[in-house]
Amino acid sequence: MRLNAAQDYTLKKLKSLGAKDIVITSHSGESFQNKFANNEVVANKNWDTSSLSVFLSIGEDGSLKTSGTDISYSDQTDIDKQLIRLIKFTQNNPINKNFSGLPTGTFRYRDVRGIYDPEIKSLGSKAVPILRDAIDLANQKGAERTAGTLSHSYGSTRLVTSTGVDESYDNSNISLSLRSLTSDSSAHKVCVATNIKEFKYRPKVIQSADEAKLASYPEKIKSGKYDIIFQPMAFANLVNEVGRATIAEGVETGSSFYLNKLNKQVTNEKFSLFDVGNLARGIGSKPFDSEGRPTKATELISSGTLKTYLNNSSSAKRFKLQPTANAGLLYAQPSNLVVPIGRKSDEKLLSGLDDGLMITNSWYHRYQNYLKGSFSVLPRDAIFVVKSGRIIGSAKDIRISGDMINLMKNIDELSNKKERIVNWESDIPTEVPSGRINNVNVTSV
Amino acid sequence: MEDLLKFAISVAQDAGANWAEARYALEDVTSFYYDNNVPVSSYYTKDNSIFVRFITGNSMGTVFIPEPTRGKIGSAVKKQVRITKAASRINKEELKFSEEKAHSKKYSVKEKIKLNSISDEKKSKTILELYNSLSKLDSFDSSSIGLKTKITDKYYMNSDGSNIHSVIPEATMNYFFTVKANGKSTQRMNYLAGKGGWETVNNWNLNKTLTSEVKNLSNVLNKGVAAPKGVMDFVVGHEVTGIMVHESVGHPYEADRIMGRESAQAGESFVKTDMVGRRVGSDYVNIIDTSLMKNSAAYYLYDEEGVKARDKILMKNGLINEFMHDRNSSAKMGLTSNASSRISDNSKEPLIRMSNTYVVPGKSSESSLIKDVKRGIYMKNFMEWNIDDTRYNFKAKGNEAYLIENGEVTKPVLFPNLEVDTFKMWSSVDGVGNKASFGMVGGPCGKGEPMQGVPTSMGGPSLLLRGIKL
Lengths: 445, 470
Fold this sequence. Notes:
The complex is a heterodimer. By secondary structure, chain A is of the alpha+beta class. Chain A is built from ten helices and 21 strands. In chain A, the strands form three sheets. In chain A, strands 1, 2, 3, 4, 5, 6 and 7 form a seven-stranded antiparallel sheet that branches. In chain A, strands 12-11-10-13-20-19 form a six-stranded mixed sheet, covered by helices on one side. The longest helix of chain A is centred in the N-terminal third of the chain and has 16 residues, at 76-91. Chain A starts with a helix and ends with a strand. In chain A, 57% of the residues are buried. In chain B, β13 (341-342) and β14 form a beta hairpin. By secondary structure, chain B is of the alpha+beta class. Chain B contains ten helices and 25 strands. In chain B, strands 1, 2, 3, 4, 5, 6 and 7 form a seven-stranded mixed sheet that branches. Chains A and B meet through β1, β2, β4, α2 and α4 of A and β2, β3, α2, α3 and β5 of B.
């Protein structure tokens, strides 16, 4: 069967089999990735991302059983068999008392501006000149080696539910992740866009090569407390941790440091955080969430105070919160995390740092105790030593540790320029400025 | 199925590939996830897909197709060969693969109790009963527990003539719980994995194991003293040995990482290609990676390039002995592959990965290692850990840990730091526990773009480390 026909058939069939809440999501599209290392293209990957997934409940309100599956949709008889199996599978499940049904009511949807560019769909081998240009440019600017990925994808997603939702959207994105390396240093930048026109990768490539060169001859530094400027990629990694901690279901299960913190100060008052599901040209944007609620902007942290948890309809009810339209059928999911900018330019942020560090990237953020937010993380790539507002050298082999709430309360300044970050550590699309955090615990081996 | 794979390989070759491989997988997955006593996720899938990889010019291409048909395969492979050819023109180096023997083999892992004979209800109840048991303990606060069973029926063929059919059943569990006592809290996260039938789950002794863990952590919270400062000796249990081995020996000995192929994200290595034979640890240290450990998390007989598996001796008496290789990295070093190429699922490219990595046991009992310490730390397990992207700057923070005073374990200690560089860590090994202290623990290991989490295991015996700064 064709995908859309299979989707319609599945909804009808599940209704006839007695399912109560039904969500069927279809997706058709492709992803491409050119992976490069040592200035060579080491793999050129293509995925057919087509899928048909089902979530359903059976039973009565207050005692619903739930389950999910991916449907193999090529043959109608085969679909029938799979759905009968799914109903039986669900009947054998215990009651999911966390699930309180899909939202009902009439929703009005608006297209999200700028999340699909047909040029990306037809990019194909035309991505190769971009890749060549990025590698050549980094090398011309002083990188000895480059490594990274050039990725692009496009797709069409359709949601149908037992509550009458039948909506769809197209989206696309293109990204370059490039690390410039010298013999003893590196710097990593990303450029992400939903359309070709805004995919301005060259400045990022140049910045990557420049910072890699500037970070040459790194030296060990002493353990101690440092004031640190987190460049956007490093700051986005922290903001991703903060965003994840606002997920309602994580708060319930001990994997968040925001338990009992609603309406309390959790960061410095200079810091606010929004989740914006309908962000124009946002990488994580879509017109509706997985339950069919129209997406919107939600202020999670307002001038340092935690205002709400990200939720789906069921967790909103449990926490007695307004729905944020972040379903996830199982858990709420952040869409685009947006940090409002500050007042100082990046240059002034640097010139105002008397004695400290500027880190450009980090990885391996791990918790000893999620409830307390006690963690450590390793800065990677260029780590600059700053004295009297000037970069005077670079550092290596350091680790940052602390607890997330105190760390975020020590934010002192945010720069007035945002960057869009999606990478290995920041898998939630994030728009952040640079942030200065004071009194950060640094250890050196 | 073999016809479809032959077709995929021939399409790639006809389009200009000079080497190609294809694999078909039917992945039958059932999964349950509970937050406390609530079954928040219950799902099953039976996905079938084909993955094709080929070399054309000086570069490599891959194609993933769910629900494959000849039509889909034909158009996708031809298109991707064109893109790969275009990208290949950027490259200056020839892309080489080592010459390897072609194998034709069918193998499977025996299930004493077939996974499919266990009802979905029983699988789900396994978690619920575990939660119900833990929730009776005073200090137990909350948990999230997931259980997944999977049977992968896979066919692999390549243009060298290999033809391998494997059927691998497996079970994995990840659990996370919080213990609260004495006004404090701590948490435990662990991953269990094994290839085999339902007996794999039975062998985990879940109730006994997790009950003991909750009680021991409660004792740490109730009676634990602050971690001392200064330079002292550590005795570490097999879980800590495992994470040391995995992060600071396994990863840096992956040849693709050493040669920079993964440098954008997964990182590089402090080890260089000319360091075979270099001393990086004390004489006591011997480390092996093997996929041939029966019923282990990472059991396989042939890797994802069709190469027959063998043990890899990574460190021999403190000297670097060999790296983990695939056909590309081994060709670059003038070697043959040692079958380290793995995937997390059928949509991903094969990468060099660890399998089951461990320190070879020595002769000392754990009690004799402890007896040899005047003042130190016995670290049984850990929670927080990390390492830098060249695998030099390591940290594991103790969870269940105790003071050692005058050769005896005395009182619990609160969360000591083992933060040390790789050379110092392995050079400080002054005693290796015997088989009685040996254990392996599972770990989902991440690498690649997109991220691939593959089941691995890691471990060894207890170790005595001298002179660690705390």
